[in-house]
Predict the 3D structure of the following.
Amino acid sequence: MTARAADRARYDRATAQLDAPVAIVDLDAFDANADDLVRRAKGKPIRVASKSVRCRALLERVLAREGFAGIMSFTLAESLWLARSGFDDVLLAYPSADRARYAELAADPKLAAAVTVMIDDPAQLDLIDAARAGGGEVVRVCLELDTSLKLLGGRVRIGARRSPLHSPAEVAEVARAVARRPGFKVVGIMAYEGHVAGVGDAVAGHPLRSRAVRLMQAAARRELAERRAAVVRVVREVVPDLEFVNGGGTGSVQHTAAEDAVTEIAAGSGLYVPRLFDNYTSFRGRPAALFALPVVRRPGVGVVTVLGGGYPASGAPGADRLPVPYLPEGLRYDPQEGAGEVQTPLLGPVADDLLIGDKVWFRHAKAGELCERFDTLHLVEGDAVTAAVPTYRGEGHTFL
């Protein structure tokens, strides 16, 4: 029996009394992935990206482990909810225009101490000030650096279009604008190199493309390491007591951790290891988050139909955004139908071994987005479900 077949047998036994659709997290794999992230971080604390987990119980589990500290959230409403739930170090990774939540933040000493907001433009300070509604608490601010690699005098750009602050001088100017502004304090710098951390460099069947990605990423790491260090130097001239410099992501943990200027690493997807993280040479994780759909039809030889399945991931549309049929091995989508809204046909000789009611296990393309489809994650240890915990959705929250 292969390792994957053994996993299928375990998951089927563990969920034998649960009707599909059902979602699980294999805690043995989750914990092993957490250990691997810590190993690669080489002593620097890992701030957990909540968008890649979206389950309070699992955030608590990983933050209880040595090597993890703090949360990187994705909306201001989520940030305040987490702070009220007892998480005392929440960095909002994206600028917000949520005026009502800014008013809550500025009026509550506990929230203001626990939550740090992201800016990359003084106009965002204007919005916060206009939303204060009399709240006088100092708002903790993090500045985001654009990490994109610019070539040919800026005519070629590689990387996500996030912050407009690219040069040390630009970041320092915004730091000075915050320092001049009553009611705000710069406490950190964030720089997420998505073109390194979030792009696989070993795409199956595409050796030339993979080689090009590796060359690009090596160049991007060198350029960013120099520029990030320069940014930190000039910002510390304005803010000597800067608390943190955050960088990285699951795919670049060990590279970012090697930079002296970086004080902490961000990671989250590496806990669940969705399918998009199969294409890396820098690490190998264990798939920890899966969902099962039930076989409801057998339309013909070599075909079964499962209920649901159309759970595409965000990003540029493409086949890599679809969940992948994982267990049993050997199933594939019908190219004429793909993953359906209500039903999904799956092809392959192994389909003939499946019976009505059997489970087909899938891996989502991305990590936390799976939790937007399920209210509950069933936690598997060995071949038993040992707990059932709510996702954000299960607690009544869909923040985006």
